[in-house]
Structures are given as structure tokens and as C-alpha cells.
Write a sequence for this structure.
């Protein structure tokens, strides 16, 4: 029977995210929604997604936000997404990212930016999954999951951890604000110098870059070296660095769990037969 093809509870977060985002065929979506609405756990998860979307839209209209995301950062994030779309074996690394259009009706504010954590980006926590009150005073979000319209073209499939791009976007915007937004972007004149703590705002400068030189510039050598070190994951960026007084390569990977990112430092002589893992740390 046709109903046999409809997924049954318990529903995975990936399936619920796709349903919520409108990434399912319309026929399947219509059959699945009634079943999902009868599942309390599924509804809690969908309400948490609506809450995150509402928070992000509210953030876009916040008078305290100084500037839109710098064009250089936007381009690099777009490059990461495009590269991940083309990552081989997508069935193992697929996730959904919601692209929220900025509110064009309201111009960017120029008030000072508040002190925020680079990683305060609305990611889901255990608190977010608690039942949400629906009698909110907000006109934009009432706690009820929205069934997406068929024209939800702003949503894309990508091969990355679900919240990683939002996490990194927050870090870059915060770091850009701390540096000063009037500075003209310039190429680094020399390899980045890293300390042992792998500071998040520092290592994330490799996002969307593929500037490694030498043997590791060959993609197959780099991926082979990472696989030999037990880090066979999607690559988000790489660049030359100096670590512990020696030349090395910094590589950003999808983390072991959403929404983390793994920063890895490899020796320049790293090969699939002899992995030279100098340091690694999970961010987020």
C-alpha cells in the first residue's frame, strides 16, 4: 500500500527539519504532516525550529546590530556551502540549512554593537526543546509550527553539520566588529601564527579558504592524511600557518556533533602513510 512509504515515528531530526523546511515532495509532505502533528516529541522539535527562526528574524531587525555581514565573509560562507553541495557521498553528510532573507524594509542600524559571544547564534539546546508557550506577545511568532509554502526556494541542501554555518557566521560577524568594519580586506602577507589553544576567532579565519601550499595543496593528499589520522570528514577550509615555530597547515572540518567544527593542525610533511597530526580541537 502507498501508506507503507510514509515514515513512521520516532522521526529523525533530519526528517523533521526537511519537512519543516519544505524540502520534501508535496505529496509526501501532505501525508506526513497529519501524522507528525499527532507526535508530541516531533511537535516539540518543530516548535524549537520555529523558535530559532523567530529569533533569527528578530535579530535581523535588532536596532543594536551595526552592519550587515561584510561582503568578504558572505562570499566565503557561500563558497563553503557551494563546496559542500559538491562533496562526494552526500548521503552520509547531508543536512538542512535555513537561509533567512534579511528584512529589506528596515535599513541597517548604526548603533553600537552590544558585547556578545561569537557563538551566541541561536543554536538548539536542551532548554529549546522544552514545551514552548504559545501565548507569546510577539506578532511575528506564536509558537505554532508553520507548514512551509511550496515556493520555499531559499532553502538548500548542503553536506555539513546542521548549524555549523550559522555558528561560523556569528563568529565572523563578531570578529569583524571587534576589528573595525571600515578596514579594507587584505590578503595575509604571511602564514598565520597559531598558539597551542587554537583560539576560535583565529582558526575560523580559514573558513572557505583553500590556501595551503606544498604537498598538502593536493586534495587527495590532504584528505588521505586526514583519513589516516581518523578525521575523514567534510573540509570547510584550510590555510598555511606557523605552529610551534614550524610551518604547518590548518584545516577546518565538520565536527563530531552539530554544531561543532573541528580545527586540525597538520605538519607539512603529512602523508596518508605517515599522518602528522600536531593539534586538534572542537569549536562550539
Amino acid at each position: 500500500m502507498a501508506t507503507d512509504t510514509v515514515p513512521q515515528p520516532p522521526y529523525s531530526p533530519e526528517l523533521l527539519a526537511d519537512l519543516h523546511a519544505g524540502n520534501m515532495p508535496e505529496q509526501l509532505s501532505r501525508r506526513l504532516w497529519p501524522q507528525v502533528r499527532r507526535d508530541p516529541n516531533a511537535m516539540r522539535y518543530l516548535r524549537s525550529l520555529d523558535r530559532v527562526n523567530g529569533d533569527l528574524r528578530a535579530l535581523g531587525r535588532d536596532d543594536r546590530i551595526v552592519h550587515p555581514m561584510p561582503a568578504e565573509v558572505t562570499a566565503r560562507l557561500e563558497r563553503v556551502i557551494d563546496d559542500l553541495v559538491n562533496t562526494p557521498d552526500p548521503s552520509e553528510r547531508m543536512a538542512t540549512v535555513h537561509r533567512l532573507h534579511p528584512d529589506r524594509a528596515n535599513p541597517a542600524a548604526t548603533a553600537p554593537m552590544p558585547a556578545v559571544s561569537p557563538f551566541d547564534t541561536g543554536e538548539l539546546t536542551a532548554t529549546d526543546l522544552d514545551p514552548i508557550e504559545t501565548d507569546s506577545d510577539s506578532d511575528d511568532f506564536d509558537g505554532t509550527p508553520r507548514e512551509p509554502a511550496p515556493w520555499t526556494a531559499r532553502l538548500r541542501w548542503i553536506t555539513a553539520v546542521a548549524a555549523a554555518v550559522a555558528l561560523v557566521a556569528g563568529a565572523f560577524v563578531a570578529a569583524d566588529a571587534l576589528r573595525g568594519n571600515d578596514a579594507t580586506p587584505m590578503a595575509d602577507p604571511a602564514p598565520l601564527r597559531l598558539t597551542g589553544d587554537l583560539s576560535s576567532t583565529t582558526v575560523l579565519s580559514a573558513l572557505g579558504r583553500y590556501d595551503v601550499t606544498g604537498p598538502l595543496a593536493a586534495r587527495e593528499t590532504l584528505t588521505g592524511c586526514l583519513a589516516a589520522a581518523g578525521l575523514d570528514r567534510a573540509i570547510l577550509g584550510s590555510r598555511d600557518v606557523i605552529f610551534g615555530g614550524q610551518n604547518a597547515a590548518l584545516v577546518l572540518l565538520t565536527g563530531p556533533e552539530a554544531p561543532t567544527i573541528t580545527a586540525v593542525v597538520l605538519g607539512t610533511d603529512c602523508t596518508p602513510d605517515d599522518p602528522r597530526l600536531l593539534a586538534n580541537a572542537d569549536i562550539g
Q: What stands out?
A: The chain has a mean pLDDT of 69. The two ends are 45 Å apart (CA to CA). The CA atoms of residues 6 and 150 lie 19 Å apart. Residues 40-60 form the longest helix (21 residues).
